[in-house]
Amino acid sequence: MGTPYYITLASFRRMFSSMKAIFSFCLDYDAGHHQKLNGNRRHLMSALADSIDDLVQRLCQKRALQRFELKEIQKVSREFNPEGGVSTLIDVLLGRDETVFTKFKQCLRDMDRGALIDLIEGRGSGSHKATRCTCTVTRNITEQSVDDTGDTITSSYTEQYTHQSEHEAGVYKRVGCGQMREPDYSEIWIPNNENLVTDFKYNLGEVTGRLLQGFVISDDDVTTIKRITDNVDAARKLVEILPLRGEGVLRKIIKALQPKYDIANILDQQLKELMDKVTV
């Protein structure tokens, strides 16, 4: 028969004190980066979709992610959508301590995403007020035609498009940078170049307005387009610019132009077919 073990009052107090400290730590842990990540999940998904591959590579280099986690996030991003990849990354971070969360913020800072750090640190509750945003794009257009007598007729007019939508205060987005990912570029974008020009050339004001509002292109891009007075040339320039606005830009273009533009619906269908072919 073993020696009986008695818990003294002093031992009980020490054990209770230790349990209280652990419980307090867990509360602090959950109330810290858990709330900040979960409270801003959908904003992070939107803002980081174009740079998820870069972000997870950086986290892996800092030993904040394991290789199998990196591959899983990349698989979700590739086979479903980049936003899903960001959500998967957030799920991984929720299972880690503050040290990994700090490395996550360091990566954002290295990527010049300081505004996102301000967002998750200052608005962890996820409470955001919707505000109305107005975007106006104006183009001065000059066209030439030949009448029945052979005389050249020059006409000028101003095309203006105003688009209003609601955005949530505290959501920080920026235009992406980098080449559209493969095979989106070679199998979808390039074969549809002429269709894109055709759809864009008669609606440049509205198209650029929607793309600007959707953070697909920048004010500088709009200025570049507006300097070109020929509609076809301006449309070709836009088609040339768009695939340089982030690896996940195709989804953003589709989202900005649906459901009004047929070409966006065509691109969406082709992208779904491509993803189905990849997952087989």
From TrEMBL:
GO terms for biological process: regulation of apoptotic process. InterPro entries: CARD, DEATH-like_dom_sf. Residues 29-123 form the CARD domain. This is CARD domain-containing protein.
